[in-house]
Amino acid sequence: MAVFSSPRVLCAPSRTPPLLSLSLRSYKPTTLRPRYFSLSTHLRTKMEVELTAPNGRKWTQPLGLFINNEFVKSSNEQKLASINPTTEEEICSVYAATSDDIDTAVAAARKAFKDPSWKSLSGTERGALMLKLADLVSQHAETLATIECLDNGKPYTTALAENVPEVVNVFRYYGGYADKNFGQVIDVGPAKFAYTVKEPLGVCGQIIPWNYPLDMAAWKLGPALCCGNTVVLKLAEQTPLSMLYLAKLIKEAGFPPGVVNIINGHGREAGAALVQHPQVDKIAFTGSTATGKEIMKMASATMKNITLETGGKSPLIVFEDADLDLAATWSHIGIMSNQGQICTATSRILVHEGIYDKFTEAFRAKIQEISVLGDPFEETTFQGPQVTKQQYERVLSYIDIGKEEGATVFLGGEAAPQRGKGFFIAPTVFTNVKPTMRIYREEIFGPCVAIASFKTEEEAVEMANDSTYGLGSAIFTRDLNRAHRVAREIEAGMVWINSSNDSDFRIPFGGVKQSGIGRELGEAGLAPYCNVKAIHVNMAA
Q1: What pLDDT is stored for residue 46 in this prediction?
Q2: Alpha-carbon distance 103 to 406, whole Å?
Q3: Residue 309 appears among annotated catalytic residues
Q4: Active-site residue among 48, 162, 166, 309?
């Protein structure tokens, strides 16, 4: 497989408590109404197109590369198509960057980094721009959620209630931090005055995946802009539309030209050129572990600062004293949200043998109650299609592998097209899973979970840690002493106790082992985007 071809892994966004009232329905495939988006025959220019979604919302969709606050064609005018995963139809085609276009975008970012219009702004002034952008995102919430639903396949209710608010919260959080990222004075005695300042790195190349296009862009843009950097943001080729629309809001908010440049393009061409560019000071990437390793190799040539958030196969442990209804509820959220396309998805559930049967029945009932498949624009829908045909086929191939390995299909295990169309897969639960099985060890990245049993706490910890990944984890128990003890023993960047995947933009996010390098979100998310410079003053001079 070519390097950067179709990055597939992403992370779970910060979550507010789940809106279960939107999802309390019996599990059965719903029927898609023949409601499709429309493409206006009137093109304002070759750089934008008028679109209308199934919910009736209309907007002007940019198609170009956003460089220097303007949308431009790619140097050879090549394009890539964005496909609606619900109907398998093309939405529109956008311009795809070449290596020459990467040169142009990086040059714009480098110029902006040195220009007084950005470089001379105080932290307070940078923060004001970010707060203005947050306000604009909030004002355009319905349009952004509509685009995300159409282009990505996630339910509109989720995009509106969770994903767009996440963008607003992240921009407001880091906008508020922009004049509070202090250096310090260090007392070394009267002969010397020593202090530190935090300075931006320069031009940051950022590469985001397709499962949370808006959220992941905010996670990266927020701290980078807060610290005073400039950015070239490469979008996932599968889902470029929502961030191209948001680019218009960046200009409207008043950011100087070149501070934020947003490009579409294939990873093997545009992504590779960005990572290897000598004028890029930092690379931040969210995607597969395999691609992350290739990025490390390429970035090493110029010793770039890197942040990587890669794959996961997160365990969820249910002890014998757990609240079974609570465990079943959060286990469902932890794997079935976002069509299972979450890097922190708790896709390995480890259940004490004494309650194994009770838990699996409660878990199946919860899925049947909540996981309604159907048109993502319908309010009753909990699960939409997988994002692409490639991902759809990948998940189905793992379901076949699980069957061949001898695991029991406890629920689902098949494609679930709606009106004969769409990349829909029934929520799938495997029981009688052995730790040696591929469905237990490898990241599937879909609505598919493997449930195994354990006898003792020590065995549970050993099974949880028996993975090359170490991103997220979850523990269910009423014994808080045990909860804290096990949390310290699990090899993961994050542990949820009596919940799963309820991340928060104020709390660090990241993993260990082959799940990545560095942290995003919270105060810790600022460190990868600034240098600490030490200044020594000889007071005796």
Answers
A1: 83
A2: 52
A3: yes
A4: 309
Residues 6+ apart with CB under 8 A from 200: 113, 227, 228, 229, 529, 530, 531
Q: 90 with 120: CB under 8 angstroms?
A: no
List the structure tokens of 130: 């970010």
Residue 423 has which token pair? 């990349």
Q: What are phi and psi of 164, to 5 degrees?
A: -65, -45
CB hemisphere CA count around 53 (13 angstroms) = 25
pLDDT tops 70 at residue 369 = yes
Instruction: State the Cα angle at 156 between 150 and 158, rounded to 5°.
Output: 130
pTM: 0.93
Both tokens of residue 139? 């004002």
CA dihedral 390, 392, 395, 398 (to 10 degrees): -70
Task: Name the residue among 218, 220, 232, 247 with its Cα closest to residue 279.
Answer: 232
DSSP β-ladder status, 282-286 and 305-309 = parallel
Q: Distance between CA 199 and CA 533 in Å, rounded?
A: 7
**Secondary structure (H, E, C), 230-270:** EEEEECCCCCCHHHHHHHHHHHHHCCCCCCEEEECCCHHHH
Backbone angles phi, psi at 531, to 5 degrees: -100, 145
Span 304-325, pLDDT tens digits:
999 999 999 999 999 999 999 9
Is the four-CA dihedral 184, 187, 188, 191 of positive or negative sign? positive
Cβ pair 122, 179 in contact under 8 A: yes
The total of other beta-carbon atoms located within 10 Å of residue 517's CB is: 17
Q: Residue 512: which H helix or E strand, with range? A: strand 512-513
Phi and psi (nearest 5°) for 311?
Answer: -75, 175
d(CA 251, CA 254): 5
- Residues 495 and 475 sit within 8 Å (Cβ to Cβ): yes
Note the pLDDT tens digit of each residue in 81-99: 999 999 999 999 999 999 9
Q: What whole-number distance in Å separates Cα of residue 290 and Cα of residue 514? A: 9
The residue type found at 254 is G
Structural contact between residues 155 and 375, judged by C-beta atoms closer than 8 angstroms: no
Residue among 4, 3, 2, 6 at smallest CA distance from 394:
6
The residue assigned the tokens 């600062």 is 305
3-state helix, strand, coil in the chain (%, to 5): 35, 20, 40
CA contacts within 13 A on the Cβ side of 257:
9
Residue 45: pLDDT band with limits 50, 70, 90: low
Q: How far apart are CA 366 and CA 176, in angstroms?
A: 40
